[in-house]
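quick one, 286 residues, struct below
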Amino acid sequence: METSRTLRPLSRSTSLAWLAGAAMAAPAVAIVGVLFIYPFFHSLIASFQNKSGNWTLENYSFIFSMYVRDMLFTVWVSLLSLVILLVLTVLLAGYLRLHHSSWIEFMFKIPLFVPFVVVGHAVRVFLAPHGTLNSALVFLTGNWFNPDQMPSIAFSTAGLVAALVWKNLAFSLLLVLGAFRGINNGYLEASRNFGAGTIWQIVDIMIPMSKGAIGVASVLMFTSMIGNFSIPAMLGNSGGNQVLMMDLYYQIVYQNNYGAANAIGVISYLVSMGAAIYYLRTVSRA
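---
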């Protein structure tokens, strides 16, 4: 049995509303196309070409033979920093939700106004062998503490993680604290009536009711850490593994190997895109 459908012409008001919506979305779509989609496909095509313009896989073969440990190191540092960041963010946001303190909130939001390169330099000065932290320990302990015998935290993975966590803490706190403050006080008062302390109010009430905001913060912070260049450039790698952005910089500036640099860029795009797909499939539907 055949069925026929009659398409109804759009009314004038509906057409105007559709055009207005398209006009409002056009700048955002154009920015995504110019700043993300076009560079991605340009890098993707160039990554499969050699210097003569011939199609090849040698760029990917080269970077996987040279930088596979750096790829794993980049993901490891980003995930470790993200876990530490989320734990600190949830605890701080939960405390500030229950015990309002403008001074504490301001202190932890200061990194929001500090550029990445300044954060890298500040951590370098603070955690260097003869930096601010060790100098203070020498002053407090006298001859008991010798900074020359201590490991250099500033130029290690620990220093890099500390810098990434501190820099991203302010923005993450801003997102999660906003979600916590949107929770109705009645839920928190009810849990307190049953004897719940600060930790259990955070774990049982705030986190389950703010999964969306915590997920958004996780995705944004992870992609920010994956693509960060300024902080690793300031702290160095102490002769060990380094993040992919430093490898990309080395291939462009010192080797003029744009094919390998584009291949590294594509790998970074795909890792970041994985976080974006997770956000679209899970967090945005929550």
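The chain has twelve helices and no strands.
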